[in-house]
Amino acid sequence: MTGPETSPESARLSAGLRELKDRTGLSLVGLAAKTTFSKSSWDRYLKGGTLPPRPAIEELCRLAGEPEGRYLALRELAQSEWNDTRQKPAPAPVPPLSAPAPCGSTAVGHRGATVVAVLVSVSALVFGAVVLTLLLLPDRSGTAWPPTSPSATGPGCGGRACEGRDPVAMQCGPEPETLAEHVTATGASMQLRYSKGCGATWVRMWGTRIGDRVELRGRVARVANRAEADTYVHTPMTATRPGTVVRACFLPTKGARKECFRARVD
């Protein structure tokens, strides 16, 4: 199914799938060889041009060793958004202009409509010329307006600018380094992650219960509902320089003690 690329959920899904693909170390040809989907299909799925089927997500998660729940949930949201878009009524067609009155007729109303149409056309041309002039006219600093927007590729922040930000939203997650992993007494799994490009660390965990929390240098993520317990949560990022020792702690909702582990950022 094509067309879901306009959905924010679809964009998040394709970004997550690209991260999984990078973690496998496989090319598109390699993915095609190890799954039941072709190279061209994977190219569309990873670019967000086509909503991937559930089996494709399941196979990629298996290759990357990643729980599939979060990605399947994103797919369902993207599917729902796409369906809603398709169900929106199409805009009403613009009625055609009236045909010219026959010769010899005395359609006064038609002549009035023609005058109005001419005035509207002239006004539109004048307005367009003014807008074009303003767009091409440089401002006092000598820079053309509007300014060129920054590139949308690459990380969205770096260092202190990443403090408290979401690693997925800031595109810090495609190639993170896993500094350490820890499995708690309750069975929850945690990973301490570091992005060299963003200069920041964060922790993610899965296999949790509602109310479980994970903390990293004052940044906390809490499992708020069943959907998050079935997938995973991650803390906001904290700016981290190489050589820093970071400590993450798991705070269970009940029945177990606080557990901490640490790692050094190389």
List keywords for this structure.
alpha+beta; 434 Repressor (Amino-terminal Domain); 5-stranded antiparallel sheet; 266 residues; 4-stranded antiparallel sheet; 2 domains; 7 helices; DUF2690; 36% helix
Can you offer a commentary on this structure?
By secondary structure, the chain is of the alpha+beta class. The chain has 2 domains: 4-86, lambda repressor-like DNA-binding domains (434 Repressor (Amino-terminal Domain), Orthogonal Bundle); 159-264, no CATH class. It has 7 helices and 9 strands; from the N terminus they run ααααααβββββαββββ. It has helices at residues 8-24, 28-34, 39-47, 54-64, 69-87, 108-136, 226-230; strands at 177-183, 189-195, 200-206, 213-216, 219-222, 232-234, 238-239, 245-251, 259-264. The strands form 2 sheets. Strands 1, 2, 3, 6 and 7 form a 5-stranded antiparallel beta sheet that branches. It has a 4-stranded antiparallel beta sheet with strand order 5-4-8-9, with no helix packed on it. It is globular and about 45 Å long. The protein starts with 7 loop residues before the first helix and ends with a strand. Pfam families: DUF2690, HTH_31. The chain crosses the membrane at residues 115-137. This is Helix-turn-helix domain-containing protein. Keywords: Membrane, Transmembrane, Transmembrane helix.
